[in-house]
Backbone:
């Protein structure tokens, strides 16, 4: 035990014992991470910019735009033509583009099924929501067009007298037949009718109101936690490189020639870098909270515990990697390449719920998923009755990785 | 000249012999692109729906007695497609529902006002109240389900009020063949663009930037292994050594780049556009930028570890601010993102994928060349100033 503490204390001293170490390992990461948190946390509230062009002259196109505007989720920017819209999307002037084709209202009324076009450069939550909303409005518009059609038929049938019942009942009369049969004057009349219905619908007599007791975690929390985890993991790299240095400079061999066991060296390194990691986490949280005044939306001690538990897993992972790799030059590269895939899988960059099922199952093996879940649970005020599971999983991962790490450290071997 | 080739050949042999280097260079990029592609495939393909476990929604009907309860809501909740998504449960009062949501018993709650049906029939205002629960996804799903229902009623009410009630039966949920919204093609003529192309390009650029790490490793390992002394004792000029190293690593990077492009093309069907020459030019410029950038870092950093962490940090930050990792605010991409090398490479490659005319591509290539020139100049001067010696 004493040996472990000595080794870990020496590691801590080596890393943050001097002023340069404190700046490089504690202050700098703290400031960088909190600035990034502050940046990404702020963007959750920003509306997504959507470019649109409305080539339709009738009421339907204007209705689609008005309804989208009403959701309050988008900043709509108008473009003159379809070409301009596409260029705008390509230049990433907006998250997505929406084009209402020319003659949209007219072809709706003619019973055809015109389509709204959506352009996107990359998939994002905003573009998915836009697609859903637009297709809902588009579907409703088709229904309304059918109703206008039926009303027109009804009126005509009324004039025709006896045949009315037959005509209205027979579904075989195609809408094109109708259109050709009626004069252009009625086309205008239908458009006026459609416009009247849509104006009435825009009043939203039937609707909903949301009562929000702030029970659910904000979207920005997921983003912030995700980036926090990514950078914490990256910071672990620095302590791995210290361990690698030991091997390269044969310090590890010397340590091993003293009366210490292999697992003691592994545990000592582990404990030392964990201590540094915990100090780093605390620095990041304190700078974020009190300097940048960012509200994490959950108790600080819980967030600290979650991040510390995650740090523990990263340490285990790092010590396994450090044991596996004999050539210290590869360590940084491999670490970066473990970091990105696990962050993607664990939901640091996008919510896990949008991934296919088997990927969600695979995500269970990644510590990031459990840390994010714990943060979400804690933000909704869940107690330990629910929080124990992610913590238990994180703890288990850490133990397993540490055991593997200490088993393969083999301090007697030199670097390649 | 011969010296340069010898050094380059040695560098090549060294890189291609190391197994972990091979994994890093050739396997991991493809793995990453595969991960992103399949993680977002549900979204990109828009095909298979995910299975959602039904969650419980507390329903409160404020009507005084059971006979006056809303028929509309009742029959809506009974429909089979709704039952797959939510499990409605009747709560006695608004307080009970709120408490249920707070305690997690219900994931969501809906309050139906008294006389909901009657208000709709008579064309008055009728509003449901939603109470948001603890799960963001459930909130979104439940909100969408009920909002769709309400919007359908809203349009029917509007149609009934303006056209008369006889128009309503025609308003069936049209099972028409084509969806009301389609993803449009960003450019005519080119094969359909998918979002996986975007991420494939972003990852390619990230890995091209990462290849500078090899330069750092190589430069420092000569120092650390004391082989720089030995090389110094031979008739090799410093410039030759440098050029040879760059050449060797450059060749490996070109191989890596080609393998990523070919593998993604044949394995995942990523379309890289119809201008292989220009694509190669952009990749070469990216490699040059990455190599020269790492030389500059290596000249000024004290140890290999710090040089490596600076270069990794720069790569991640540049990929991040160019929007290659996570969606950023729109205003950012064109202001902050423009300061990253990736941004310009990305622009060029995306336009090639879309088969845009040359005039649209030339801008980003000019910009990339400018960046390369500046970096090359900086690398040259820092080499003259600091030099590469023990």
Residues:
């Amino acid at each position: 035990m004493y040996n472990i503490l000595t080794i870990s204390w020496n590691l801590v001293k080596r890393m943050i014992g001097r002023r340069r170490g404190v700046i490089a390992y504690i202050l700098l990461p703290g400031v960088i991470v909190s600035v990034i948190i502050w940046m990404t946390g702020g963007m959750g509230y920003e509306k997504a910019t959507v470019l649109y062009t409305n080539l339709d002259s009738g009421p339907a196109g204007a209705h689609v735009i008005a309804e989208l505007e009403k959701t309050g989720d988008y900043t709509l920017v108008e473009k003159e033509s379809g070409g301009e819209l596409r260029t705008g999307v390509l230049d990433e002037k907006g998250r997505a583009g929406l084009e209402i084709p020319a003659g949209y209202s007219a072809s709706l009324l003619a019973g055809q099924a015109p389509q709204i076009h959506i352009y996107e450069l990359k998939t994002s939550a905003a573009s998915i929501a836009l697609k859903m909303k637009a297709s809902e409005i588009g579907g409703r518009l088709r229904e309304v067009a059918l109703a206008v059609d039926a009303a027109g038929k009804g009126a005509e049938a009324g004039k025709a007298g006896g045949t009315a019942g037959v005509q209205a009942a027979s579904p075989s009369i195609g809408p094109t037949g109708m259109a050709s049969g009626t004069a252009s004057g009625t086309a205008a009349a239908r458009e006026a009718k459609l416009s009247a219905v849509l104006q009435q619908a825009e009043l939203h007599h039937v609707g909903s109101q949301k009562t929000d007791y702030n029970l659910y975690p904000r979207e920005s929390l997921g983003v912030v936690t995700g980036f926090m985890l990514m950078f914490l993991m990256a910071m672990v790299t620095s302590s791995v490189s210290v361990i690698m240095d030991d091997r390269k400079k044969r310090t590890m061999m010397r340590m091993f020639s003293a009366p210490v066991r292999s697992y003691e060296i592994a545990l000592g390194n582990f404990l030392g870098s964990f201590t540094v990691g915990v100090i780093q986490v605390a620095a990041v949280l304190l700078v974020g909270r009190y300097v940048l005044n960012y509200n994490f939306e959950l108790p600080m001690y819980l967030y600290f515990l979650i991040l510390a538990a995650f740090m523990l897993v990263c340490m285990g992972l790092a010590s396994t990697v450090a044991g596996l790799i004999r050539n210290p030059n590869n360590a940084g590269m491999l670490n970066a390449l473990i970091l990105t895939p696990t962050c993607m899988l664990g939901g640091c960059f996008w919510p896990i719920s949008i991934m296919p099922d088997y990927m969600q199952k695979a995500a269970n093996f990644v510590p990031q998923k459990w840390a994010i879940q714990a943060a979400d649970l804690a933000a909704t005020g869940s107690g330990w009755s629910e929080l124990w599971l992610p913590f238990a999983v994180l703890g288990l991962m850490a133990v397993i990785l540490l055991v593997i790490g200490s088993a393969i450290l083999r301090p007697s071997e030199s670097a390649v | 000249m011969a010296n340069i080739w010898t050094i380059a050949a040695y560098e090549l042999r060294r890189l291609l012999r190391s197994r972990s280097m091979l994994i890093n260079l050739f396997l991991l990029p493809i793995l990453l692109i595969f991960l992103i592609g399949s993680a977002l495939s549900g979204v990109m393909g828009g095909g298979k729906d995910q299975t959602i476990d039904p969650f419980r929604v507390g329903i409160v009907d404020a009507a005084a007695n059971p006979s006056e309860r809303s028929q509309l809501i009742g029959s809506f909740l009974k429909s089979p497609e709704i039952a797959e998504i939510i499990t409605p449960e009747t709560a006695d009062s608004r307080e009970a529902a709120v408490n249920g949501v707070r305690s997690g018993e219900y994931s969501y709650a809906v309050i139906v006002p008294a006389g909901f049906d009657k208000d709709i029939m008579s064309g008055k205002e009728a509003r449901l109240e939603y109470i948001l629960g603890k799960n963001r996804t459930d909130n979104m799903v439940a909100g969408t389900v009920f909002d769709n229902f309400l919007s359908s009623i809203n349009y029917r009410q509007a149609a009934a009020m303006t056209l008369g009630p006889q128009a309503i039966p025609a308003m069936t949920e049209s099972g028409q063949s084509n969806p009301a919204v389609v993803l449009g093609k960003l450019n005519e003529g080119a094969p359909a663009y998918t979002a996986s192309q975007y991420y494939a390009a972003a990852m390619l650029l990230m890995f091209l930037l990462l290849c500078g790490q090899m330069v750092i490793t190589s430069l420092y390992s000569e120092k650390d292994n004391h082989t720089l002394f030995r090389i110094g004792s031979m008739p090799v000029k410093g410039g030759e050594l440098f050029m040879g190293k760059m050449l060797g690593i450059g060749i490996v990077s070109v191989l890596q780049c080609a393998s990523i492009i070919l593998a993604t093309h044949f394995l995942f069907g990523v379309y890289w556009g119809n201008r292989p020459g220009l694509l190669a030019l952009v990749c070469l410029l990216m490699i040059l930028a990455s190599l020269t950038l790492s030389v500059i870092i290596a000249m000024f950093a004290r140890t290999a570890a710090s040089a490596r962490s600076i270069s990794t940090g720069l790569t991640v930050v540049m990929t991040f601010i160019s929007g290659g990792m996570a969606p950023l605010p729109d205003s950012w991409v064109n202001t902050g993102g423009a300061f990253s090398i990736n941004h310009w490479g990305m622009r060029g490659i995306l336009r090639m994928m879309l088969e845009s005319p040359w005039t649209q591509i030339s801008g980003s290539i000019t910009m990339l060349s400018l960046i390369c020139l500046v970096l090359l100049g900086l690398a040259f001067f820092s080499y003259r100033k600091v030099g590469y010696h023990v």
Notes: Chain B touches chain A through 111 residues (CB under 8 Å).
